[in-house]
Amino acid sequence: MNEYTIKELKEAMTALTSTLHKCEKIQEGGKLQSSQKTLNDRRVKALSIALTLIEKEMRCKNDD
User: What pLDDT sits at residue 63?
Assistant: First the structure.
């Protein structure tokens, strides 16, 4: 598995958090068609998972 620095992980978190908020705003608008809503819902879930994994990795690095 690739090794990432804390700085790289923080930058990734910033970018992913921004994208997640944008996707959540789109969800709140309620104007998406069914397939678009499904795709956006999956993006929100994937981004949430990615952020959780990055946070976990950062905790492990801090424990070292």
Answer: 81
At 33 the three-state DSSP class reads: coil
Tokens of 54: 């990055």
CA distance 6 to 40: 29
For 1, the 3-state DSSP assignment is: coil
Q: What is the pTM of this model?
A: 0.88
- pLDDT per position as a tens digit, 16-56: 999 999 999 999 998 999 999 999 999 999 999 999 999 99
Burial of 30 (0-12, 13-18, 19+ CB in 10 A): exposed
42 residue type, one letter: R
Q: How many residues does the chain have?
A: 64
Least Cα distance to 23 among 15, 59, 2, 54 occurs for 15
